[in-house]
Write a structure and sequence with these properties.
CATH superfamily of the largest domain: Aldehyde Dehydrogenase, Chain A, domain 1
Number of domains: 2
CATH architecture of the largest domain: 3-Layer(aba) Sandwich
Mean pLDDT: 96
Strand content: 15-25%
Shape: globular
Number of helices: 16
Helix content: 40-55%
């Protein structure tokens, strides 16, 4: 047997024992322990992640470890995940939840701690075993996170093999895992997601992010730009739901740029714009050496210097958008595009064109006091989530205050080539049996009544 075959076999034995011996209270306790473990070790794991991946911001990773772990637990707390979930009083239809089996959890180097944590929590909640396949460049910190969780779960006698991780990950091992498991949850680059979808097993993947944020008229631009800077700079811009472009009223340019400057953003000149674009893009893709790096390193690569307190580089458009301006693309670093509009419908057009160029189906943002414009943007933009008057980077993946399930896997629907257009959570790892008796007391309408 190969290493992966042995892991799968071990997981199947463990999962059968877990289903047999863990009731809803036991499962919920296991989820609490798993998530709280990451919360408790937030600093250690953040430090390991920065040192191993050489990207991101230590303080932001600490915040991410704490907020995601408590958010995931709070979102799952008290929710029924086994046995009878619902009985329809009108029809008598009974819904019974059942686990799927063994989950393959493919995780990225951009979120090497919280993504394994959330996948493990979702698997435990739905009574599925899980095998984590981390990115090779984050294998040590991801393994440490998984080991800490497994060690902590020993207190509830978690069956050995219920939670595992591939110690020396490779493309071949990941592909074998996806072929042999029962379902794959893939978070990472598009090639990996496409590989998951072609594995022959059910898969949940995510599309590319390129979050377009519209600033409406009659808002506080200093407040809005402070949220944009916070979101774009968070973890040095490697969050897929992080703000990428600011689309603002053309007559408010001075107010918007003043807001950026007041919030530690640097507005690039026309000459610096071209240097930044050349520095961050190679062959139409984000250059590897700028991913998750600071503004100072990026500017230095581009041939100029920026002050140490600068958090975001703002690059204004060339008068175009979409394919005619490369700053319209996703940028895995703290660089933000800026596009002026003349009327709100044009703002939506710019956002949609940029999304169609890259990032369709993921997320958009809107800062507005107009409910009509909020509904209009939500109705017309091809995104799975529209974040309103909040920081996209930290709330699109779920928040206690916005109703979105807390997760690190954000489905992008058919727009992004995904099977779901919502935040992935434990319910997606359940099979549901529907028991459907005929209710003879229910009156069947006549044909004339049906077609009236």
């Amino acid at each position: 047997m190969t290493e992966i075959e042995q892991m799968i076999a071990k997981a199947r034995v463990a999962q059968a024992m877990y289903v047999r011996h863990f009731d809803q209270d036991d499962v919920d306790l296991a989820v609490k322990i798993a998530t709280h473990t990451i919360y408790e070790h937030a600093e250690e794991l953040a430090r390991m992640a920065v040192e191993e991946t050489q990207m991101g911001v230590y303080e932001d990773k600490v915040a991410k470890n704490r907020n995601k772990s408590k958010g995931v637990y709070w979102d799952l707390k008290g929710k029924k995940s086994m046995g009878i979930l619902n009985i329809d009083e009108r029809t008598g239809l009974i819904e019974i939840a059942k686990p799927i089996g063994v989950v393959a959890g493919v995780t990225p180097m951009t979120n090497p701690i919280v993504t394994p944590m959330s996948k493990i929590a979702f698997a435990l909640k739905s009574r599925n075993a899980i095998i984590i396949s981390p990115h090779p460049k984050s294998r040590l910190c991801s393994a440490r996170a998984v080991d800490l969780i497994v060690e902590a779960l020993a207190q509830v006698n978690l069956p050995d093999g219920m939670v595992q991780i591939i110690r020396e990950p490779s493309l071949d091992k990941t592909q074998e895992l996806m072929r042999l498991c029962d379902v794959t949850v893939a978070t990472g680059g598009m090639p990996m997601v496409k590989s998951a979808y072609s594995s022959g097993k059910p898969s949940f993947g995510v599309g590319a992010g390129n979050v377009q944020v519209i600033l409406d008229r009659d808002i506080d631009y200093t407040l809005a730009t402070s949220k944009l800077v916070t979101g774009r700079s968070f973890d040095n811009g490697i969050i897929c739901s992080g703000e990428q472009s600011c689309i603002y009223p053309f007559e408010q340019r001075e107010a918007v740029m003043a807001g950026f400057r007041a919030n530690h953003a640097y507005v690039c000149s026309a000459e610096e714009r071209e240097k930044i674009i050349a520095a961050i893009f190679e062959d139409g893709h984000t250059a590897r050496d700028v991913v998750g790096q600071s503004c100072q390193k990026i500017a230095r690569k581009a041939g100029f210097e920026v002050p140490d307190d600068i958090k975001v580089l703002v690059v204004e458009s060339n008068g175009h958008f979409g394919p005619e301006d490369p700053i319209s693309k996703e940028k895995m670093c703290p660089v933000m595009g800026a596009f002026p509009y003349q009327y709100f419908e044009q703002a939506i057009e710019i956002a949609q064109t940029n999304l169609s160029y890259e990032g369709k189906g993921h997320t958009a943002g809107l800062h507005s006091n107009s409910q009509a414009n909020i509904i209009k943007a939500g109705s017309e933009l091809s995104v799975s989530r529209l974040i309103v008057n909040a920081i996209c980077a930290t709330t699109a993946g779920g928040s206690i205050q916005n109703g979105l399930p807390v997760t690190n896997t954000l489905g992008c629907g058919s727009w992004g080539g995904n099977s779901i257009s919502e935040n992935f959570t434990f319910k997606h790892l359940l099979n549901i049996t529907r028991v459907a008796p005929l209710q003879t007391r229910m009156r069947v309408p006549s044909d004339d009544e049906i077609w009236a």
